[in-house]
Predict the structure of L-rhamnose 1-dehydrogenase (NAD(P)(+)).
Amino acid sequence: MRLLEGKTLLVTGASAGIGRAAAIGAAAAGASVAINYSRDDAGAEACVAEIERAGGKAIAVKGDVSLPETAGEFVARAVEAFGKVDVMVNNAGICPFHAFLDMPVETLERTMRVNLHGAYFMVQAAARQMVAQGHGGSIIAVSSISALVGGEYQTHYTPTKAGVHSLMQSTAIALGKHGIRCNSLLPGTILTDINKDDLADPEKREYMEGRVPLGRLGQPEDMVGPIVFLASDMAAYVTGAALLVDGGMFVNLQ
């Protein structure tokens, strides 16, 4: 089903991981796709090439999401290429694991700037374009199960993910009158570059897998269906919501 036929979808942090899977999956669902990335030129080029080989349309725009001007440029380049913005998927994020008591100031501030400030700038730029177009849109923020639970080595990260979810709740109210829907996705442990070092320990990985009722850790492709759904007209009456995509990890207390 090409649920996104005729739509233009933007996704940040898309040279790898969830963002890459979202871009390729959205293109397969019919969308024209603009991807943002910060450093990995080869990864971004490979993502665009895969979309184009399958007959889709895509562009890559390099930029640091922590800088407010990056958001405006990303949206402008997407409009230049495809004429409009229908969907923004705010996915870019970092999580340099570190203990709390000796957390470097620069690590805290960089995580806040990328994960939370970057989300704010991207969502605001996309919303401005959607309002100017006058036909609504969908904004999806990739938050995390970490918005709901703590992490010993994530005291700088979990507040940003709670903030991203809160941003979607507030923007759902602010933008509803413009027909713009704002929702959060809360993935559990998805195997990406963010956690590959942490999960390189076999005992840690086995423990994490044991916490998941479905019996496995997530893959980036597990996020595609929920993203396509929230981006599509099937979710026309869904806004301000949060969807857990975690294999049941959150509810598995005992």
